User: Fold this.
Amino acid sequence: MTEEIKNSNWRLRKGKIIAAKQMTAAEKWFDIRLEDGSLDHEPGQFVQVELYGVGEAPISVCSSPTKRGSFELTVRAAGRMTNAMHKLDVGDYLGIRGPFGRPFPVKVMAGSDLLFVAGGLGIAPLRSLINYVIDNRKDYGKVDILLGCRTPSDMLFGSEIGAWQKRLDVNFLCTVDRGAPDWRGNVGLITTLIPGVTIQPERTFAVVVGPPVMYKFVIAELLKKNVPERQIVLSLERHMKCGMGKCGHCQIDHPKNYYCCKDGPTFTYDEVKASKKL
Ligand SMILES: Cc1cc2nc3c(=O)[nH]c(=O)nc-3n(C[C@H](O)[C@H](O)[C@H](O)COP(=O)(O)OP(=O)(O)OC[C@H]3O[C@@H](n4cnc5c(N)ncnc54)[C@H](O)[C@@H]3O)c2cc1C
Ligand code: FES
Assistant:
């Protein structure tokens, strides 16, 4: 094996599942240790998970790089590959390539206030960044976290969210589309939380991750609050095949022909606003 291939992120590495948990009916969480060292990812990056004889899928790393020794993934059962991943458990192995993709701009955002907006499974990539910021809390200003999910039982990382809620240096707000008899919190779309948050727009970065339908409405609320377009950071999801900028499957309909796999998945709003569909 040449030195180049050995060091390339494209090298297939063997990962062992050291912990796993069914988080909701559709989402399963995995803690994975690579047999030959650390992943060395940055918040916002993803890995290509390979199951021999089944296929490959891009999955965001949901743990912070400040956690050493292993990394975490949260997988929603969507089709062939992700359903096969749900059958895996502690002690099983999977193939890992990566990390890939442009990470969140943690250095550019240092010293600024941060407004995180997560919808549904969007909390998975954002959790990597949120925990990174919490572990480097003195490097960032005011932190607001807004989380929206369909129902209380769809909420991921419940106990960790409870810990964020208790922190005095973080403002955490949550809403569900549909409540439950014992739900005492907000009911309504995530956009309803934004007007109530006090921000200084010129010193705020808003980081938004969620289902495609959410972006248009959340961005409209952020622009109403005068957050500059270059300070709205998004993580986009596209159906990927090659993952290396060759096949065109993940192209974003944009004059600059961005590929989500190699130019993203993170973009600032001013970079992609010419796209018809975020
Ligand atoms: C950068 C990136 C990060 C991701 N992070 C996560 C993550 O943290 N957790 C997670 O559960 N999933 C994540 N995904 C989505 C995940 O990769 C897909 O759900 C998975 O590849 C589906 O493969 P499958 O074989 O299970 O389903 P398939 O059998 O391929 O497809 C099932 C259905 O989902 C559709 N589909 C598949 N992939 C996508 C996609 N990317 N966008 C829209 N529709 C799609 C198919 O058209 C089909 O209708 C991410 C995707 C990207 C691009
Ligand atoms: S997945 Fe092939 S170009 Fe991005």
